[in-house]
Please model this.
Amino acid sequence: MNYRRPIVAVLALVATFAASGCDSGTTTSPSAATGGIAGTGAKTLAGTPVATVKETDALAFENGTVTAKVGDVIHFTNSGSATHNVKFDNDSNAVVSSGTMAAGDTWDVKFTAAGTYAYKCTFHAPGMTGTITVS
Model:
């Protein structure tokens, strides 16, 4: 019996799984998938957060309405056990999204232009929404 083929298939599967970054509690980064831009105003990562928005098991954003200045970073953290995400609504095709966030995952967004940025958890919308106003 030829065992080489099944072993190669298992090794390929393990390599794919390891590369997928399935480690809980890590910072999620959508920049590779989205280019890191929400309209003309937000980029992922870079800087010290000025505010933290928590995703909770109550299916709400705690501190979901935030006021910030251009250049500020907002920190999102999944403080509960339910899976969440953060997706900004805007008219652009380049919408920033956190990707799926498990318990303990975090994600930062830096705002580079003034404006009002509405966002939601697509798993728990329409009720799980928030707004960041940047001046």
